[in-house]
Write a structure and sequence with these properties.
Its cofactor is Zn(2+). Zn(2+) binds at residues 39, 41, 99, 102. It is an enzyme of class 4 (lyase). This protein is of the alpha/beta class. The protein folds into two domains: 1-29; 31-209, Carbonic anhydrase (Beta-carbonic Anhydrase, Chain A, 3-Layer(aba) Sandwich). The protein contains nine helices and six strands; from the N terminus they run ααβαβαβαααααβββ. It has a six-stranded mixed sheet with strand order 2-1-3-4-5-6. Helix 7 (129-138) crosses helix 8 (145-164).
């Protein structure tokens, strides 16, 4: 912890003091154009991956970068952040980022009925059951659990994007062209990134690889 505090002191000297006007403007209020929904995984920092500066992205992180449907009670944290981003901050873009080797997706794919491993995690990852069902159907000929998990990491991103459109204020903003939805996938081992647009019709566009 001490080393982290020392790093803060160094950053304060080299960043803040060289850009006092920038940080004073930030203190006056935030006006991000992006909301990013990413995984809590310590290896996946969206601001680092996409090089966002302070104030450019309103970031929400949770297990497996999931968005619960609006009618599902008990998960107000992500939904409250979403409402604030769209209705108050009026962000122009929402990006959901999945990633390789996601422990949350592994937990989803190995979930067993009537068996509870964790009090909170199991209930949370059940949000992704529709994505899991789609993956199990699409990969029936491939028995590899690893293959199924890697496939679900991408599929669950679209599942979260579908759930976003179930929020009336998101649907309205997308339909009026005030908001765009995007999907992304970060490969930890390769350092590569995949990106696609997600339309108001619930369909994903062409995947671009970087």
């Amino acid at each position: 912890m001490i080393s982290n505090l020392c790093a803060f002191i160094l950053a304060q000297a080299t960043i803040f003091r060289r850009n006092p006007g920038f940080y004073q403007n930030l203190a006056a209020g935030q006006h991000p154009k992006f909301m990013v929904i990413a995984c809590s995984d310590s290896r996946v920092c969206p601001t680092t991956i996409l090089n966002f500066r302070p104030g450019e992205a309103f970031v929400v992180r949770n297990i497996a970068n999931m968005v619960p449907p609006p009618e599902q009670a008990g998960y107000p944290g992500t939904s409250a952040a979403l409402e604030y981003a769209v209705r108050v901050l009026k962000v122009e873009n929402i990006l959901v980022i999945g990633h390789s080797r996601c422990g949350g997706i592994d937990a989803l794919m190995t979930l067993k009925e009537n068996t509870k491993r964790w009090r909170f995690i199991d209930n949370w990852v059940k949000i992704g059951i529709p994505a899991r069902a789609a993956v199990l159907e699409a990969t029936r000929r491939n028995p590899s659990l690893q293959h199924k998990c890697r496939t679900c990491e991408r599929t669950s991103v679209n599942g979260s994007l579908v759930n976003l459109l179930r929020f009336s204020f998101v649907k309205e903003a997308v339909s009026s062209a005030k908001l765009q939805l995007h999907g992304g996938y970060y490969n930890l081992a390769e350092g590569s990134f995949e990106y696609w647009k997600f339309g108001a019709d619930g369909k994903s566009g062409k995947v671009l690889k970087f």
